[in-house]
Amino acid sequence: MDALANLADGFATALTPVNLLFAVVGVLLGTMIGVLPGIGPAMAIALLLPVTYSLEATQAFIMFAGIYYGGMYGGSTTSILLNTPGESASVVTAIEGNQMAKRGRAAQALATAAIGSFIAGTIGTMLVVLLAPSIVGLAVQMGAPDYFAVMVLAFVAVTSVLGASRVRGFCSLLLGLVIGLVGIDQTTGQQRLTFGVPQLADGIDVVVVAVGLFALGEALWVAAHLRHTSAQVIPTGAARMGRADWRRSWGPWLRGTAIGFPFGAVPAGGAEIPTFLSYVLEKRLSKHPEEFGHGAIEGVAGPEATNNASAAGGLVPLLTLGLPVTATAAVLLAAFQQYGIQPGPLLLENEPELVWGLLASLLIGNAILLVLNLPLAPVWAKLLRIPRPYLYAGILFFASIGGYAANGSTVDLVLLLVFGVLGFVMRRYGLPVLPAIIGVILGPRAELQLRRALQISDGELSGLANTWFSISVYAVVALVVLLPVLLRVLQRRQRGAGPGDGTTSEAPERVLHSSSEGRL
User: Fold this and answer.
1) Is residue 213 within 8 Å of 476, Cβ to Cβ?
2) What pairs with residue 183 in β-bridges?
3) For 3-21, what is each residue's pLDDT tens digit?
4) Alpha-helix residue ranges (DSSP H) falling in 343-467
5) Shortest CA distance to 297 belongs to which of 105, 507, 516?
6) pLDDT tens digits along 143-184
7) Interacting residues of 429 by C-beta distance below 8 A, sequence separation 6+
8) What are the domain boundaries of the chain?
9) Half-sphere exposure of 488 toward its Cβ, with a 13 Å CA cutoff?
10) How far apart are CA 381 and CA 298, in angstroms?
11) Nearest to 72 by CA among 112, 102, 108, 27
């Protein structure tokens, strides 16, 4: 009941006229930017981080909450109308959503995506409200070995889930860890990797890294592959659903929510795997399996609900442990650090107005999103006609302004260009961007917890696994590492034994691999 009382206080904060205006602006900006091809909520928040420097923290995060959910809905719009996912979590939506659009059912596809997002987002946010205080109680009892174990789990999981190659994921993580080392060593006071540049002594601003890798890297990648032919956008009317569509969608919405939230809440989550699981489950349970691959509405309703529930669940480790498990959560963590706020067990105690106002604004923004996007679907579709050269020229402009505004230093502009080129190279060779961002943010914190654990144990490695919690986490790490290997061995044995039904399990891997090539 205390959580519900605190949520009521959060509504009192979020429903003030000014904060409500920022929620509406965030939803509109998030949807508008998320609709544009290749731009997801992570890039939208990264681009708008410098714009919020003059805002209060509560106002800024209320606007980020609207961008968060609005950007995800915009990604489903591009998946359905253009067959171009705005982010990897929207890949599965494109499988059936674009087929529905080609059959003249774009309005129904957009409607089930919007309503499913609303239902899953609302349930997921309420679960965050109810679970966060309990998890904080557990987190307060955690020591340095426990925190380091959880960070190792985050490193291993984020490199294992994204993309088809773990080697590329670990290479990306290593790049992020190296970037995170730049600056002064807190223990010895020695400069590391500064190359004699005084401006690097305080480290590299996470905002510069995020904007460079996400926005600048994506813009350079698209410019290198730009074609003068414009994409064909499927026309759509106001999003609406018939009785049969409602009857076939409500089950996938609820099942998708149940699948997505646990994956997001665990510091090994992300929305890619649960959306594929939701798609496979709906195909197995559907009374119309022959429609899958040709525009089955269950194939849109389930994955979209899963995506939004996973996004809501991702707030649990972010707010209670300070661990980002998605690209958007990583950028939000950078935003917290921008305001001098450290997410973790003490966040609910130190910043209650901010946290509960943020959670309340997620519920408010989710409702605003539904009210606005059902009638405005044709407007968002027209945004897809913006020529790519104009679009990415604007991104380069705002990214440069944002990089300079971070610290008012021309060195940051040079670093922005360097990270933009690095982001382009990473996309060229299929390196996922998220592990690099996670490495930059969590790397210094993991180093700090590692040193504390070793100091407590007098340098004994056994001090890294001297609690039941840390041992349990390392067991999960071993499972994450070994399970895919065991599954591949079993698949090879099945193939050797004879033809089997391996289509379902292989298709998601191929789709995820294709989506991660050149895109987060």
Assistant:
1) no
2) 192
3) 788 888 888 888 888 888 9
4) 347-350, 352-383, 388-407, 410-428, 434-456
5) 105
6) 788 878 878 887 887 776 544 577 888 888 899 899 988 888
7) 168
8) 2-516
9) 7
10) 22
11) 27
